[in-house]
Amino acid sequence: MDWKIGRLDPTAADLDEVLAVYELSGLGQRRPVEDRELFEAMVRNANLVVGAWLGGVLVGFARALSDFSYVTYLADIAVVREHQNAGIGRAMIEAVRREAPRAKIVLLAAPAARGYYPRLGFTQHDSAWVLNSQP
Question: CA torsion, points 69, 75, 81, 86, in degrees to nearest 10?
């Protein structure tokens, strides 16, 4: 595969392209893609975003929040289904890591991806806690 991976300005990202990646990757089932205003805020307010392009078409998107020193929270990593298992996800994680090389990366895995992250060197942490938003 001949893809291009690079950091993306979240305020300049084409929201329709990003939405398409979420929907075509399956991640759209677990993110508020139907609420465009909320989804746009999620993308625009991330401070570390990486994209993957194949032939000029966005096929992968990683959204993170980082202090660039201690921790990077990798909130989303999405790759269009037909391009999954080609190394794009791994390459985007490596690109995120290059932006904050001293910071640990923390993420919450989707149920279907729980077996993926250990293969990349992630270790499972048993004390993650979630406080859901209020309605």
Answer: 20
- Residue 89: which residues within 8 A CB-CB, separation 6 or more? 60, 77, 79, 116
Task: State how beta strands 104-106 and 48-54 pair.
Answer: unpaired
Average pLDDT over residues 11-35: 95
Phi, psi of 15 (to 5 degrees): -60, -35
Domains, the chain:
3-120 (3.40.630.30)
> Containing H/E element for 84?
none
Residues in Cβ contact with 104 at an 8 Å cutoff, skipping those fewer than 6 apart: 70, 71, 72
The pLDDT of residue 1: 58
Q: Is the C-alpha dihedral spanning 54, 5, 63, 84 positive or negative?
A: positive
| Mean pLDDT of all residues belonging to the chain | 94
